[in-house]
Write a structure and sequence with these properties.
Elements: E1 8-12, H1 38-48, E2 52-57, H2 67-80, E3 86-91, H3 98-111, E4 116-122, H4 127-134, H5 139-152, E5 157-162, H6 168-178, E6 181-185, H7 203-216, E7 220-222, E8 239-242, E9 248-249, H8 266-269
Parallel strand pairs: 1-2, 1-8, 2-3, 3-4, 4-5, 5-6, 6-7
Antiparallel strand pairs: 8-9
Bound molecules: iron/sulfur cluster.
Length: 270
C-alpha cells in the first residue's frame, strides 16, 4: 500500500489562543498571535486532501476564530477533502460569548461535507478539580452548560479527558449518567503539569486507571497515546498535524520538538 493511498487523519491547530490556562496544555508558551492562513492550509490539502478521511479542528480554542477565517478553512476542506468521513471540533466550549458558541458550532457543522460530524469537549473532573486544572473560576459550569446544549440540539458529542489522577473517575461518572462516550488520552508533562498535585502518573499507572474505567463503562475510547506499542496502529503515515505557522508534523506531541520531523513512532514521542 502506498503512503498516498492510506486514509489520513488531519489535525488542524489554527491558533493557540485560548481563554483557559490548563496546567498540562501542550500549547503553553507558544505565541498566540499566529493564525494558520488559507494559503498554508491549501498547500497541505492540495497534497493530501483526497486521502484525508478524518479532520479534527483543535487549537488553542478553535471556536475563538473569527467567522471569516473559519469560512476560508471550510471552503478549502470541502473543495479538497472529497472523501471526508469524520469531521470533529475539539473545544472547551469557552469563548466568552456563551450564547453564540452553540450557534457557531451548528453553523460550522452545517457547512462541512462529512458523513459523521461531532464535537469533543474537554473535561477534567468535578467542578473543583476542573477549575483547578484550567485555572479558571466558573469554567466547569460553562463547559457543562455547553455539553448540555449540544445534547439538547442532538449534536453528537463526546468528552475528552487526560488521565490526571483518580479524579478522572468523576468525569467517568458524568459520562455514564449522560450516556456519553469518553475519550481518554495520556496526560503529558507539558506546561505547568510538573507542578500538578497529585503529580502526573506514569504511562503504566495511567493505563491501569484506563483498565479500571473500561471495566466500569463500555463507552471508553482509548487514544493511541495510552496503548501499548504493539496495539498502536498510529504512525506518521496516517497522521498529519498542521500548526498555526503552517508547519506539518506527525502528531501534536511533536510540535515542541523543532523543525525536523523525526522518523519515530508517534507513541514513542508522546
Ligand atoms: S482548553 Fe486546551 S488549549 Fe486551552 S488551555 Fe486548556 S488544554 Fe490548552
Amino acid at each position: 500500500m502506498s503512503i498516498m493511498s492510506i486514509s489520513k487523519e488531519l489535525t488542524i491547530e489554527p491558533c493557540y489562543k485560548c481563554l483557559l490556562h490548563c496546567k498540562m496544555c501542550s500549547s503553553v508558551g507558544i505565541p498566540e498571535d499566529i493564525i494558520l492562513t488559507d494559503q498554508k492550509l491549501e498547500e497541505v490539502l492540495k497534497l493530501y486532501g483526497k486521502n484525508i478521511a478524518h479532520i479534527r479542528l483543535s487549537g488553542g480554542e478553535p471556536l475563538l476564530l473569527e467567522e471569516k477565517i473559519l469560512v476560508g478553512y471550510i471552503e478549502l476542506i470541502n473543495q479538497y477533502c472529497t472523501n471526508l468521513e469524520v469531521f470533529e471540533i475539539l473545544t472547551s466550549g469557552i469563548t466568552g460569548i456563551h450564547i453564540n458558541v452553540l450557534n457557531k458550532v451548528i453553523w460550522i457543522l452545517n457547512k462541512i461535507y462529512a458523513k459523521e460530524k461531532k464535537v469533543g469537549v474537554s473535561l477534567y473532573g468535578d467542578d473543583i478539580f476542573h477549575e483547578e486544572v484550567t485555572d479558571s473560576y466558573g469554567s466547569y459550569d460553562i463547559t457543562i452548560h455547553f455539553i448540555t446544549n449540544l445534547i439538547k440540539y442532538k449534536i453528537k458529542v463526546y468528552v475528552q479527558t487526560p488521565i490526571i489522577s483518580y479524579g478522572t473517575m468523576r468525569v467517568l461518572n458524568y459520562c455514564k449518567f449522560h450516556n456519553l462516550s469518553l475519550k481518554v488520552i495520556k496526560c503529558l508533562k507539558h506546561g505547568r503539569a510538573e507542578t500538578m498535585t497529585p503529580e502526573v502518573f506514569s504511562k503504566r499507572k495511567q493505563q491501569l486507571v484506563v483498565e479500571e474505567m473500561k471495566r466500569e463503562y463500555d463507552k471508553i475510547i482509548v487514544s493511541n497515546s495510552l496503548k501499548e506499542r504493539k496495539d498502536c496502529k498510529c504512525d506518521r503515515k496516517n497522521k498529519i498535524t498542521i500548526l498555526p505557522n503552517g508547519r506539518v508534523v506527525g502528531c501534536v506531541g511533536m510540535k515542541q520538538r523543532g523543525e525536523i520531523m523525526k522518523d519515530e513512532r508517534i507513541c514513542e514521542v508522546i
